[in-house]
Amino acid sequence: MVLIKEREMEIPVIDFGELDGENRSKTMSLLDHACDKWGFFMVDNHGIDKELMEKVKKMINSYYEEHLKEKFYQSEMVKALSEGKTSDADWESSFFISHKPTSNFCEILNISVERSKTMDEYVCQLHKFAERLSKLMSENLGLDQEYIMNAFSGSKGPAFGTKVAKYPECPRPELMRGLREHTDAGGIILLLQDDQVPGLEFFKDGKWFPIPPSKNNTIFVNTGDQLEILSNGRYKSVVHRVMTVKHGSRLSIATFYNPAGDAIISPAPKLLYPSGYRFQDYLKLYSTTKFGDKGPRLESMKKMGNADSA
């Protein structure tokens, strides 16, 4: 019997270096396809200083070793697992940093001025990338470029924060998840992840697919629940999880470009189908527009439905 190994999934890679040249239209199409059909993708040539990204990873790894590792392995969850007991807890050591609209970075213990400066520089560059990506997504959805940004803004602008996590070596990986199955609640997620240790998996086409470690400091992007709602289901959030491994401690620096807490979220009106109209009115319009593009016809029916409900 011949065993055929399942072909590894080729995750879409969007080269942002192509957006300013003759390949812009093709690159925009690839981005739309990745958002529409996948819900996750890699971005290369994103404009963020890769030496700075490397510095951030080393900083977080050293911070974990100095201040978090010992506490994690002394936790009740670790003790329980050593006795063969499992729980609903996630096998991770993590903390959250809020950047915008207000920062809590100064409240995190044992963060030196140098480390704070490094993180601030990275966040500043990443925020510019997040805004650029949101404009490109808005454009692909047929909306004004700043639609997502404005929809997320609330009274003080979109929220921007980072979940810093380490997924430590696990002696019984078959019993524990690093992070249980979920979709992300927010908008656009930008992940700087480990370049050696795997563990992240996304659910697509009825199967779990492993996401390989990120080489050359590419940014891994996935879309959250609020973008699915805003796009009226076109850009869907995708279920994912983190598996534990017996050898190696995985790093995850996930930054969230989210709606502000007081932002009012709803599907963009332009992306909604018409509703509240009489079918006979649709047939009347259809009789004179049957052989034309249906887009203007649907827009006309949308206005008619709104007028009838006013």
Automatic annotation (TrEMBL):
Pathway: Alkene biosynthesis; ethylene biosynthesis via S-adenosyl-L-methionine; ethylene from S-adenosyl-L-methionine: step 2/2. GO terms for molecular function: 1-aminocyclopropane-1-carboxylate oxidase activity; L-ascorbic acid binding; metal ion binding. Residues 158-259 form the Fe2OG dioxygenase domain. Its EC number is 1.14.17.4. Keywords: Ethylene biosynthesis, Iron, Metal-binding, Oxidoreductase, Vitamin C. One of its GO terms (biological process) is cellular response to nitric oxide. Gene3D superfamilies: B-lactam Antibiotic, Isopenicillin N Synthase, Chain. InterPro entries: DIOX_N (IPR026992), IPNS-like_FE2OG_OXY (IPR044861), IPNS-like_sf (IPR027443), Oxoglu/Fe-dep_dioxygenase_dom (IPR005123), Plant_2OG-oxidoreductases (IPR050295). It catalyses: 1-aminocyclopropane-1-carboxylate + L-ascorbate + O2 = ethene + L-dehydroascorbate + hydrogen cyanide + CO2 + 2 H2O. Signal peptide: none annotated. PANTHER family: OXOGLUTARATE/IRON-DEPENDENT DIOXYGENASE. Belongs to the iron/ascorbate-dependent oxidoreductase family. This is aminocyclopropanecarboxylate oxidase. It comes from Arabidopsis lyrata subsp. lyrata (Lyre-leaved rock-cress). The lineage of its organism: Eukaryota, Viridiplantae, Streptophyta, Embryophyta, Tracheophyta.
